Amino acid sequence: MKTLAQHQQDVPGKVATRWDVMLLPWVACIVVALVVHFASPVLVNEYWQNVLRRVGVFVIAAVSLNIVNGYAGQFSMGHAGFMAVGAYVAGATTYYGSLLLHGSVNDPNFYYQGIGLMLGGIGLGCVVAAIAGYLVGLPSLRLRGDYLAIVTLGFGEIIRVMLELTKGQLDNAAAVKDAGAKLLIHLNGPSGFFGIPSYANLFWIFLFVSVTCLIAYRIKYSSTGRALLSIREDEIAARSMGVDLTKYKVRAFVLAAALGGVAGGLYSHIGANPSPTDAGFQRSFDVILLVVLGGLGSISGSVLAAIVLILLPEVLREAQQYRLIIFALLLIIMMIVRPKGLFGVKEIWELDWFTGWFSGKRRERKAGAK
Amino acid sequence: MGIRIRVADFVQTLIAAIAVGSLYALVALGYTLVYGVLKFINFAHSDIFVLGTWTSLTAAVVITNKMGIEPEHAPWWVAMCVFLLAIAMCATFGYCIERFAYRPLRGAPRLNVLITAIGVSLLLQNVGQLPGKTVAESGGSPAATIPFGAIPRNMPALIEDRVLNETSVAEGTMAGGSKRGTVKLDQNLTIEAERQYRIEYVKPPAADAPAGAQSSIETLNVVVAEPGTIAAGEEISTQPRRNAKDVEGTKYRVLRSPLVPIRLIDVLIVTGSIGLMIGLQILVFKTKLGRAMRAVSHSVETASLMGINTNAVISFTFVLGSALAAAAAFLYPLKYPLVNQTAHGIWVLLGLKAFVAAVVGGIGNVRGAVLGGFLIALIEFFGSRYVSTELRDVYVFGLLILVLLLRPSGLLGSTAREKV
Questions:
Q1: Which alpha helices (H) appear in chain A, and where do they start and end?
Q2: Structure confidence at residue B418 (pLDDT)
Q3: Which of A78, A260, B214, B372 allows an S-S link to A155, with CB 3.0 to 4.6 Å?
């Protein structure tokens, strides 16, 4: 599989615009989403489809966090805060938007406009989360890495406290019209925003999942990605090579926050009521766990970790109370035995043992070495 | 509100802030010590603190239960035992965590150590609140268990809190035959506005009590309608008292509450923590071990070349930090008795505040942590008293971001650039 950069190297002289290389992946994203959307009802029942939607949301969360924690090696611990920002903005857009435009929420006649509202809301949530990421990242990323961890942890907590202070939800169009800009403070306090229609079906979830993975993949093999990886390996060396540390760190952080906002936006549209606790550190830890176990810097690692760690508790219902203990032990043992995570910075198709399975290259290489 | 009341209110907030600030400072010292030698945030430190509170609680219940007494009437050495047990427990855990989780990662990238610290923190939190095995039944309240279970508990009042600076405004002898809700005064009593009055008297053991029963000090709150003078011989109405006959002839005192109450627990917390901080100062700056710690903090490699057993020094630093956290953990539930389950968010928040204190003061700097602890508590308490209670956590992180922007290495931190 060739990367974009390799394709461009193949072209002598002027870099030609390769429409097939640029467009094909996006088409592939839509195809993946369609396949999942139409195949899963045949294969699994309603319950597991819901689990699958949750998996999708956490894949986006993990892959986006991987951009800052994995590629850039900056430890953000407030990803849940950005997700919550996205979730509330998108959820409120859909909910209050439907009330304003149609007078009621979750009306089948309003389905397609509802989808439009959801997409608009997710976009808005993405932008707001990105702005929040910029505001949080700029001061703390100038400093040593550890401060970022603590500032982002604090950011998540501030978001949680702010959300808990909001007032009750409005439930009719007249009240929404009266409230105007004050709608921002009607997010239903500690009990969480409810009643958001679950418009995000498997198609939308997996469209966003594959687009997120594509963005993350493209960035990894771009000049930005190389700059980020060099920052992660050695900041001083990176700086002496002319990498603007703060610029790239902030870029990664804002991107991660924006995609985290998308994950949150989808989360509020799969029938899960976003609540202030979703902004807390417990949720952030969950996402960090996925990134670390999958491999810091490995997209496929994050995806796999998200799939396994979300599905595992579903399968092992009895072991619910030991879930976090097992995960914590896994984390410690992983750091001691295999500090780079399952796949390290590599993707699954770049691993020798994986490609060896298919091509038998490994056996050849071993034979060659003898 | 009169100016006197306002000043009193201000001073009261100040006292509360200093008491809590000294606890923050004790915990912050643990963060700063570890950061000083190993240059990473020990996320498990707040869980060591929680372990300390739960150990205190469990030990208090077990000891008083085995002795067959009420915690309120426990002699002073029981509190001392509980205190030492908490320290021993936390120090052991601190040592083990360093030995088995962090030492294998010596020399690994900082990020990995940070992640391990989060792992250790999660592990302690979740093991701590597993349903436990009962070690002591306690009458009425839930039994003490190990691990501690997922139900919040109340710390038994090992040291009974009382106001130290009450003034005695009248004395007398309990008269016989007075009504249950009144006490006859022997002296004139002037009632002032905005003060509380109570009557303290010694209750002798009941006639049918078993031999060896002790007399106890009882208190009655005075119900006062309005300020003025009550002449001697008149009766003053109080809350109803039990067994009026038993107290006939015993001495009583009328006590007036001060404008600014100084509580025993606050005094204990402040003196205890300041004593420990002074001890730490002496240890770090005046002893050979302290010099070794400072050397390791400066550079682990150079220190080991100078013949310092760096591993031992690092272990000692963990033990020291954990012991300080344990001291804070013993004092904290005496002031705020509700002890939440180990994975409760409030503990992480408390640990975060202490860490913020360490960063604000300049992480790695022992005096900075103390300064930061007091500063954080002052901002938190005055902010919540005079601006808004709900935003108390927001002030703390606001201060952190402000300090990071203006003075990235903290108030007392040194600005050393990282070199190759």
A1: 4-10, 19-43, 46-65, 79-102, 111-141, 145-164, 173-179, 202-220, 223-233, 235-240, 245-267, 281-294, 299-315, 323-337, 352-359, 361-369
A2: 46
A3: A78
* pLDDT > 70? residue B201: yes
Among candidate residues B256, B281, B314, the one where a domain is terminated: B256
Structure-block tokens of residue A156: 């998540």
Shared-domain flag, residues B244 and B366? no
- Cβ atoms of B126 and B319 within 8 Å: the answer is no
CA Rg value for chain A: 22
Tokens of A364: 């050849």
- Looking up tokens 């960090």, which residue turns up? A288
Buried b (16+ CB within 10 A) or exposed e, A168-204: ebbeebeebeeeeeebeebbbbeebbeebbebbebbb
pLDDT tens, residue by residue, A278-306: 898 888 988 998 998 888 889 999 999 99
Q: Is the CB of residue A319 less than 8 Å away from at least one CB of chain B?
A: no
Enter the pTM of the model: 0.85
Is B359–A155 a contact, with Cβ atoms under 8 angstroms apart?
no
Q: Is the pLDDT of residue B61 over 50?
A: yes
What confidence category does residue B420 fall into, taking pLDDT thresholds of 50, 70 and 90? Answer: very low
The confidence score (pLDDT) of residue B419 equals 44
* Closest C-alpha among B365, B371, B367 to residue B413: B365
Average pLDDT for runs of 10 along chain A of length 370? 64 64 87 92 90 94 94 90 95 90 82 90 96 88 76 86 87 80 83 88 94 93 93 90 91 95 95 88 87 90 92 79 84 86 83 72 55
Q: What is the DSSP letter of B336?
A: S
Are residue B350 and residue B207 in the same domain, yes or no? no
Contact residues for A97 (Cβ-Cβ < 8 A; gap 6+) = A117, A120, A121
Is there a domain that residue B413 lies in? no
A184 inside 8 A of chain B by CB: no
To the nearest whole Å, the CA of B288 is away from the closest chain A CA by 30
The owner of tokens 């855990």 is: B93
Q: Are residues B134 and B176 in the same domain?
A: no
Alpha carbon dihedral A114, A115, A117, A122, in 10-degree steps, equals 140
| For testing contact with chain B, the best of A331, A337, A338, A345 (most B CBs within 10 A) | A331
Helix, coil or strand: residue B9: helix
- Looking at residue A70, the DSSP 8-state letter turns out to be I
Does residue B127 sit in the same domain as residue B181?
Answer: no
Is the same domain home to B104 and B252?
no
Is B146 domain-assigned? yes
- Between CA A148 and CA A283 the distance in angstroms is 17
Interchain CB distance below 8 Å, B352 and A154: yes
Range of the domain at B209: 169-256
Are the C-beta atoms of residues B251 and B171 closer than 8 Å to each other?
yes
Q: Which residue has the tokens 């002699």?
A: B75
What's the structural domain count of chain B? 2
Q: How far apart are CA A187 and CA A19, in angstroms?
A: 45
pLDDT of residue A15: 58
